[in-house]
Write a structure and sequence with these properties.
It comes from Microbacterium enclense. This protein folds into 3 domains: 100 residues, NAD(P)-binding Rossmann-like Domain (Rossmann fold); 111 residues, Tetrapyrrole methylase, N-terminal domain (Cobalt-precorrin-4 Transmethylase, domain 1); 113 residues, Tetrapyrrole methylase, C-terminal domain (Methyltransferase, Cobalt-precorrin-4 Transmethylase, Domain 2), CATH 3.30.950. 29% of the residues lie in helices and 20% in strands.
Length: 410
């Protein structure tokens, strides 16, 4: 009968008999678990030799002797010889040391589980009906996939004195553009503080007992001031809850994530930042607009479209080899365009407006600096929209050269 147990191998001696590729892979896992590794083998792989040379493992370059197991807590044998492996297993059992027989799992006294980890949760799979590593790996991979999708409950059932905050970048909106880390943290969350934009569809997949707090910031309208958002996430975490601050795009690209990190650190709350795909890149790409392109644009400026353009922004708007991406800029578009033209940016500069990027309602308006305001009014451009200024916004940029020549372009 097999019992699955979690072993703390930190700074404990594990003896590995055999120096081949199987042993090297297993030793990597054992070292990751914090074990002190002693290898016993006449020969070893280049990787193991390098570890021995650097002092990361102990290597006894000779055949196995029973005394090699002295002071060992765990043993692994993978010599490629059934008789030697059996000898190691017998010697280990005589010393009451658990031993994995990689050549024949059923003839060892222990088995290494197929493992997967999500955050601070480790899942191990072993077969109770004889060693079957491929089956265990297949089950492990299926569980890992579900964990990555955030489909399994990972929330802690016991509160800690102090919880933690994760500032999670949700990307441009689609759930399948969330990172694996983001999905895992959402599955662990007790509280999710979210905005109007971003992957709000994921909220419906969370448990009924997860507290959802909509801070719904909109351009020129902030129903929950930033200082109150800071207070909310700190308050919940101080009560031992795991808090996810879910944002559209990336937390540090006009997401005010820096202020939230400062608030958490000032209160002694553990905080981590999980990057997301910024809408400054993701939304133009959804419309076929690369923000950089070899031979066309090698510099990218991302700006807050609500602010008056700085001298650096105006210089970029004049530069034929630069791209300027303005976020949250629809309401200030007339002022932005007027400043660009007054600073000498050409009226022929290509412009693309991408509205509701990565949604079924996405639409792209191609125009130029000289006609941008008129076209925005004609098409009733509205937020959320990303504004792209530069040669990369040309409609024909990504057409094949042959097609361009055939149409008489270029």
């Amino acid at each position: 009968m097999i019992a699955l147990a979690g072993l703390d191998l930190t700074d404990r001696l594990v003896v590995c008999v055999g120096g081949g590729s199987v042993a090297e892979r297993r030793i990597a896992r054992l070292r990751a678990a914090g074990a002190r590794v002693r290898v016993v083998a006449p020969e070893a792989t280049d990787g193991l030799c390098a570890l021995a040379a650097s002092g990361d493992i102990e290597w006894l370059a000779r055949p196995f002797e029973a005394s090699d197991l002295d002071d060992a807590w765990f043993c692994h044998t993978a010599t490629g010889s059934a008789s030697v492996d059996a000898l190691v297993v017998d010697a280990a059992e005589a010393r009451r040391v658990w031993c994995v027989n990689a050549g024949h799992g059923g003839k060892g006294t222990a088995r290494l589980a197929a493992e997967t980890t999500s955050g601070d949760v480790m899942v191990g799979v072993v077969s109770t009906a004889g060693a079957d590593p491929r089956r265990s790996v297949a089950v492990r991979d299926a569980i890992a996939q579900r964990l990555a999708e955030g489909a399994l409950p990972l929330r802690r059932r016991r509160r800690t004195p102090v919880g933690g905050v994760a500032l999670v970048g949700g990307g441009p909106g689609p759930i399948d553009l969330l990172t694996v880390r983001a999905r895992a943290l959402l599955a662990e969350a007790d509280v999710v503080v979210h905005d109007r934009l971003g992957p709000t569809g994921i909220l419906a997949e969370l448990g009924d007992d997860v507290e959802l707090i909509d801070v719904g910031k909109r351009p020129q309208h902030h129903p929950v001031p930033q200082h109150e958002i800071n207070e909310i996430i700190v308050d919940r975490a101080a009560k031992g809850m795991r808090v996810v601050r879910l944002k559209g795009g990336d937390p540090f690209v006009y997401g005010r994530g820096g202020e939230e990190v400062i608030a958490c650190r000032a209160a002694g709350i553990p905080v981590e930042v999980v990057p997301g795909i910024s809408s400054a890149i993701a939304v133009p790409s959804a419309a076929g607009v690369p923000v950089t392109h070899r031979g066309v644009a090698g510099t990218l400026h991302v700006v807050n479209g609500q602010d008056a353009p700085t001298e650096a922004t105006l210089a970029a708007l004049r530069d034929d080899t630069a791209t300027v991406v303005a976020l949250m800029g629809v309401s200030a578009l007339p002022r932005f365009v007027a400043a660009a033209r007054a600073a000498g940016a050409p009226d022929t500069r290509p412009v693309a407006f991408v509205e509701n990027g990565h949604t079924p309602a996405q639409r792209t308006i191609r125009t130029t600096l000289g006609t941008a305001i008129q076209d925005a009014e004609t098409h009733r451009l509205a937020n959320p929209a990303v504004l792209v200024f530069g040669e990369v916004a040309r409609a024909d940029l990504l057409l094949p050269v042959a097609a361009l020549q055939g149409e008489g372009i270029g």
